[in-house]
Every structure is written in C-alpha cells, then in structure tokens.
Write a structure and sequence with these properties.
69% strand; mainly beta; 8-stranded antiparallel β-barrel; elongated; Porin
Length: 211
C-alpha cells in the first residue's frame, strides 16, 4: 500500500506544470463515474455452488466505481494524466432462506468481495472533430492493490478466505468528448486493463475542468 501511495503522489507531481500556458496548454482536474466489470471472476474456485443447497449462492461481476484525476494538456493533441480509482466491487453472498407465518426472509451467512484501489498514469491523445466535439484515447499503466475473498469448504463447513495482492499492468482507453465551453467538458470512454490476471472493463463518464 505504501508503494501505491508513493506512486499516486508521484503521478500528481508529474501532471502539474508550472510554466505559463497558451490557449492550448492548461492544467485540468476531473471526476469520473465508472461501471467496472470483471471477466470470469471466480469466488468459488474449489466449490461447486450447487453443493451449497439448500443455501442460496449469488454473485455479481461488476459495480459502480469512481476516479479522480489531474492532467496537463501540452497542445491540442497530447496530454499527460494521472488518477486514483476506487473500483466498483464484485461480490458474493451465501444466504439462508427462512419461512414463518407465510413470510419469507433471508439471512446472510457468508459474503465476500473483490475490491481494488489503484493509481494510474497515462498519455492521452485528443483530436478535435468540431468546435465542441473531440475524440480521446489513452495508453498507460495502473498500479493496483486488491483484496479478493473466496468461499471455501473447510472441515465440511463453509468459510471465507481473503487474499491480498498488488501489481502494475497496462491499460488503454478510447472515447468521445464534448466541450461545454473553454473551462469544462464531458467525456464517455471505454477502458480495458487487467487486475490480478482478471480482464477488467470500464465504461466511464468523466467531467473535466481546466484552470
């Protein structure tokens, strides 16, 4: 985690420019709302979920996350950008169904998640196609810390096991943006990376403000 904090601080410094800017040179900040989804994530690597019956097993493979970022636009076409992302958790639950007086209730017996905090730095390319609309693409690297909980069977009893991991992987994104005025814009992007050897896809709606 200390390595991630150092990485985040370093990318923030690298994204801040102290020189006077022209009309096409400026600092910017932004906030993104993302939907993060994970391919083939497995919360039960050693268990056939059908064997937990009569208990009920349910999982999700995506959720909403958030990214804050800062950047510096060198000219109309290139920028450098760094950000911090709290990825949306994928999760699972094992529930027990109870019926009493015609009412069905559910009690959660076990639960776990796949949760990630990450810092990234990327080279951004932009291409204006009109006064307001522009294309955007980026390549970069993401440093992540992940907690992955799985359901295991131990001594014929279900329990939850936690594993923490960290790493650095490549990322790429592409999208389209709309400039409201000279100070603000919105972008819609799709992004692909890999976290803990799990293909991760993000759909991101970002709001950017220049200063």
């Amino acid at each position: 985690m200390k390595r991630l904090h150092f990485f985040i601080f370093s990318l923030w410094l690298s994204s801040t420019n102290v020189f006077a800017a022209s009309a096409n040179q400026f600092d910017y900040v932004g906030l993104a709302i993302q939907f993060n989804s994970y391919d083939d994530i497995n919360f039960t690597p050693a268990i056939d979920t059908e064997t937990v019956s009569p208990l009920l097993y349910k999982d999700s493979t995506g959720n909403v996350g958030y990214r804050a970022f800062v950047g510096y636009q060198f000219n109309r076409y290139f920028a450098i950008e760094g950000g911090v992302t709290s990825y949306g958790d994928a999760d699972f639950k094992v529930k027990e169904e109870n019926q009493a007086n015609g009412v069905t209730t559910y009690k959660t017996l076990h639960k776990g998640s796949f949760s990630t905090l990450a810092g990234d730095i990327r080279l951004v390319g932009t291409y204006p196609i009109s006064e307001k609309v522009f294309l955007k693409a980026s390549v970069g690297a993401v440093a992540w810390d992940t907690d992955h909980q799985t359901l295991i069977l131990e001594n014929n009893n279900l329990s939850v096991e936690k594993e923490s991991d960290s790493g650095v992987t490549a990322l790429m994104s592409a999208g389209i943006g709309y400039g409201f005025n000279r100070s603000s814009a919105v972008t819609l992007e799709v992004e692909k990376t890999e976290i803990k050897s799990i293909n991760t896809h993000n759909i991101s709606l970002s709001f950017m403000f220049r200063f």
